[in-house]
Write a structure and sequence with these properties.
single chain; alpha+beta; two-stranded antiparallel sheet; 17 helices; 13 strands; about 45% helix; about 15% strand
């Protein structure tokens, strides 16, 4: 009982121990906040990657792909059908996008993805990332007559959501305005209504337009006498939102391209050697996946049309070639097991096919994040180690200062293990108090981290968390109680370890030697 009484007395009266308590408290709080933020960013990254990519990608190692997606999907279902929820074939090809901004013609490198609009939404969250409500329900690659979102509907807090005022005009309204201005600029004097494109027979327009509007695959007639861009569109395409826009620090998206704008995509043909080909497309929507890499490089088009343009369809049989099959698994399915089943299938030659998950595709980045988390934890844990050295120094001072008291205790019958237990229990109590207060402080900081960041930004007159850079409305955090338990346990273990040497020295004191000069 005397051990507990002495520990409680030292905690209340030995104010120098507050130094150690504060050190442990700050170390624990810092580790909790850092891990919560890092885990938040990692979870958000994983959720967004798995949202735009399927669970498993079965792909050809050749850019020209392999033939007959239906036969491959039947074989995949035969091998692992019990675990599969959905599949969708795709065609992927590197390309160059060209578009006009005023009098400037700009180009950039992109990746064109041909998708089946009916099945692709079943293997990814692609449909949820689109900016028109009708496309989110059912994508058809047709330009809409307005109704595009003017704020980032995916934001958790719409008050902090990115504003997109230019999207008010998106769609047919923007397309007509764009071509009206273009025609007015190039109209020769004396032309009919100032419009050189209006030399069009009255009997060709209505029926032909209705057919093209219903089928985006036929909506790519060459410009000329039979194509009216004021009422018709080219093949529809969905661009990553960062391809046609940029975000400023006031969280407003400014658009260089809007739905209704025509772009030109240059891509390689299939065969040997590949030749550069190009086709015009009409932007019908944007994909905002919240992944900078995807949003700045991907363009989605109808798969059948891309197969036609690249020459991937056998003219004699009508069988098309594909690059990959995106696979979504049922909830709870073992991803590694399904990958192994597909890789071990003798019908899938490993020299011709590759099977991997979205984590495999993002392995370098995920490894870098994991390494960063480990290094940060090691470096920040040194703060608690410093607190341990403080406890060691303080306890050595206490042993020297309390030599007489230790001698009295031992002369009254206290054993060496009892004296040692006093110091070990005192060290544990410092660890418990410091870790407990640090845990509470860290959790409170995590809970109010966005308000704290806003206050620091106001105080320093500079943004601490720039939403235009991270594409988040607020700092993401994730509380992992296992991590918190390990941090608290580690702090208490360090406090106990730092107490062992002073406790051992106190236990070895002989009562006669301790009282000789008293």
């Amino acid at each position: 009982m005397y051990k507990f009484l002495l520990c409680w007395r030292y905690l209340r009266t030995r104010y120098i121990a507050l130094v150690s308590i504060v050190s442990v408290m700050l170390g624990v709080a810092t580790l909790i906040v850092t891990n919560a933020v890092m885990e938040g960013f990692t979870d958000e990254f994983a959720k967004r990657n798995n949202g735009i990519l399927a669970d498993i990608t079965f792909e050809s190692r050749s850019l020209d792909g392999v033939a007959d997606a239906d036969a491959h999907m039947r074989e995949i279902r035969r091998v692992a059908g019990d675990y599969i929820d959905g599949m969708s074939p795709t065609v992927v090809v590197p390309a160059i996008l060209g578009y006009s901004v005023g009098k400037d013609y700009r180009t950039l490198q992109i990746t064109v993805v041909g998708i089946d609009e009916e099945s692709y939404a079943t293997v990814s969250n692609f449909g949820r990332c689109l900016q028109h409500p009708e496309n989110r329900r059912d994508l058809d690659f047709l330009l809409k007559d307005g109704g595009y979102d003017t704020v980032d509907f995916q934001a958790d807090d719409l008050a902090l959501a990115a504003q997109r005022p230019a999207m008010v005009n998106a769609g047919w309204r923007w397309r007509r305005q764009l071509y009206r201005e273009h025609r007015a600029a190039i109209a020769p004097p004396g032309s009919l209504d100032g419009n050189p494109f209006s030399r069009r027979s009255a009997t060709t327009s209505a029926k032909q337009y209705v057919l093209r509007a219903q089928d985006p695959l036929t909506a790519s007639a060459p410009e000329g006498e039979d194509f009216d861009p004021m009422r018709e569109q080219h093949i529809g395409c969905v661009l990553g939102i960062s391809i046609g826009s940029f975000r400023t620090s006031d969280c407003v998206d400014h658009f260089l391209i809007l739905p209704g704008h025509d772009v030109e995509i240059t891509y390689p043909s299939a065969g040997k050697p590949p030749k550069p080909l190009s086709a015009k497309f009409t932007v019908v929507d944007f994909c905002d996946s919240k992944m900078a890499e995807a949003d700045s490089t991907l363009a989605f088009v109808p798969i059948r049309k891309l197969q036609e343009l690249r020459g991937l369809i056998d003219p004699s049989t009508g069988v098309a070639r594909f690059n990959s099959i995106q696979i979504r698994l049922k909830p709870g399915a073992d991803v590694k097991k399904v990958c192994s089943l597909l890789r071990d299938n003798p019908n899938f030659d490993p020299f011709a096919y590759a099977v991997g998950t979205w984590r495999d595709k993002q392995a370098p980045l995920l490894s870098a994040i994991h390494l960063e988390i480990i290094l940060l934890n090691i470096l920040l844990f040194l703060i608690i180690a410093v607190a341990g050295f403080g406890i060691l120094a303080i306890f050595l001072m206490i042993v020297v200062e309390k030599t007489r008291d230790i001698g009295v205790l031992k002369s009254l019958g206290a054993s060496g293990s009892g004296v040692m237990g006093i110091f070990l229990m005192y060290g544990l109590s410092l660890g418990i108090v410091g870790a407990g207060v640090g845990t509470v402080l860290g959790l409170v900081f995590v809970y109010y981290i966005n308000e704290i960041a806003g206050g620091v930004s106001w105080l320093m007159n500079t943004p601490v968390f720039d939403r235009s850079v991270y594409q988040f409305e607020k700092i993401p955090t994730t509380i992992d109680w296992l991590t918190i338990t390990l941090i608290v346990s580690g702090a208490m273990i360090i406090a106990i370890l730092a107490s062992i040497l002073p406790a051992w020295r106190a236990a070895r004191l002989h009562p006669v030697e301790a009282l000789r000069y008293e």
